[in-house]
Amino acid sequence: MKKLENAAKGLYEMKENDWKDLCNTIDRQHPEFHEEIINHLDEKFTDQQVYFCYLLKAGLTQTQIRNVLDMPKSTAWTWNERFKWISE
């Protein structure tokens, strides 16, 4: 997915359709993944947290995820620790 590669380098901003494509691709490969996310997140979760989970599942590094989501390093670190079950 060229758009994701560019977003990971900070060269492209993911659009709604890009997110749908990414999530659908991962859901086809890992049908249980979306349900696992719902089970691990609190009742109050944001789209950004869901996207973070999908990006981890796609194999992006913490730095790449920060570029895609335009988030502070501290948030990326905290969420990486919180969602480390994804990459285990």
Give a short overview.
The protein has helices spanning 2-8, 16-29, 33-40, 47-57, 62-69, 73-82.
**Helical percent range?**
55-70%
Oligomeric state of this protein? single chain
Mean pLDDT: 92
Instruction: Specify the structural class.
Output: mainly alpha
- The rounded distance between the terminal residues' Cα atoms is 23 Å
Order of helices and strands: HHHHHH
Query: Rg to the nearest angstrom?
Result: 12 Å
Describe the global form: globular
Number of strands: 0
Whole-number total of structural domains? 1
Residues in β-strands, percent: under 5%
Please describe the structure with a list of short key phrases separated by commas or semicolons.
single chain, 88 residues, mainly alpha, 6 helices, 0% strand
Question: What order do the helices and strands come in, and which of them pair?
Answer:
Layout: H1 2-8, H2 16-29, H3 33-40, H4 47-57, H5 62-69, H6 73-82
Helix pairs in contact: 5-6
